[in-house]
């Protein structure tokens, strides 16, 4: 069963003021309220249901997709409930603020409120930055914020038929081993949106989800590398990235790319257009073999009877 995540979507509102012979059209930015609650909960990290003591935003890995438009103000509140054992924080890569103020750790029982203007379009990671940051990210405290360009879709940034969010991270069964995290030792899997082989029934018979599109559609993947230490060799097997928007920004477009290297904490947007004349499948992978064969494979099925709701509206991060 495909369930959708909740995310916040806003557009630019335009107001027309006419009177006294004056006509003024002004597009103004919105304020988008976002609240997240740090939750230390056990979650399944594979399709079998192996449980793991995660630290999360809102009890999910990854946290919810935040989506705003360039110029919007994000009015953000982080709640760290008393029941938690650890301080937590938020670091929005889309924000230009003070690391010692807005991004400061919040103790259990406290909350933090701040605002920032999303000034630059793109695809950005957010994560907890409380110490030890490697541990908080490895345990699951990350997500994506999409800042849509204010000019909307253009020839340089065509409207996609489907959109999906994929976030990759490293699975360390013992996230208390802080030296292991920093030395990249003891990691046993690659999580895609919080689970190994989450969308890959080819390699994992317990997997029940895939990404879907119709033949010939433009599929835009918003991808973030939330690994602790390893870059990602992002490649669509049996396809070629039609466009890669570095950092998710149409000003930074590459064409016809087989594999794009995504640094730790980098995010971007990747367009794939499948052949229109037949049903096909892609396997979207981290071509780094140690990561692919430990979980970083996602199947995209391009078929005429693709679920019309998949990859549309609120349904871009398949849970
Ligand atoms: Cu944290």
Number of domains: 2
Structural class given helices, strands, pairing? Answer: mainly beta
CATH architecture of the largest domain: Sandwich
| Unreliable segments of 5+ consecutive residues | 1-6, 9-26
Number of strands: 21
What can be said about the biggest beta sheet? Answer: 6 strands, mixed
Our count of helices gives 3
Nearest-integer average pLDDT:
93
Which of globular, elongated, flat, extended, rod-shaped describes the shape? globular
Beta-strand percentage range: 35-45%
According to CATH, the homologous superfamily of the largest domain is: Cupredoxins -  blue copper proteins
Cα-to-Cα separation, first versus last residue: 9 Å
Q: Cα-atom Rg, whole angstroms?
A: 20 Å
Are any ligands bound, and if so which? Answer: copper (II) ion
Series of H and E elements = EEEEEEEEEHEEHEEEEEEEEEHE
CATH class of the largest domain: Mainly Beta
Polypeptide structure, described:
The chain has 319 residues and is mostly beta strands. The protein folds into two domains: 13-148, Cupredoxins -  blue copper proteins (Immunoglobulin-like), CATH 2.60.40.420; 162-302, Sandwich (Immunoglobulin-like). It is 5% helix and 42% strand. The protein is built from three helices and 21 strands. The protein has helices at 133-138, 178-183, 289-292, and strands at 13-19, 22-28, 31-44, 51-57, 66-69, 73-80, 91-92, 110-117, 122-127, 142-148, 162-171, 189-192, 211-213, 218-225, 232-237, 241-245, 253-257, 260-262, 267-273, 280-286, 297-302. The strands form five sheets. A six-stranded mixed sheet has the order 12-11-14-19-16-17, with no helix packed on it. Strands 13-21-20-15-18 form a five-stranded mixed sheet. The chain has a four-stranded mixed sheet with strand order 4-3-6-8, with no helix packed on it. Strand 1 and strand 2 form a beta hairpin. The longest helix has 6 residues, at 133-138. The protein is globular, with a radius of gyration of 20 Å. The protein binds copper (II) ion.
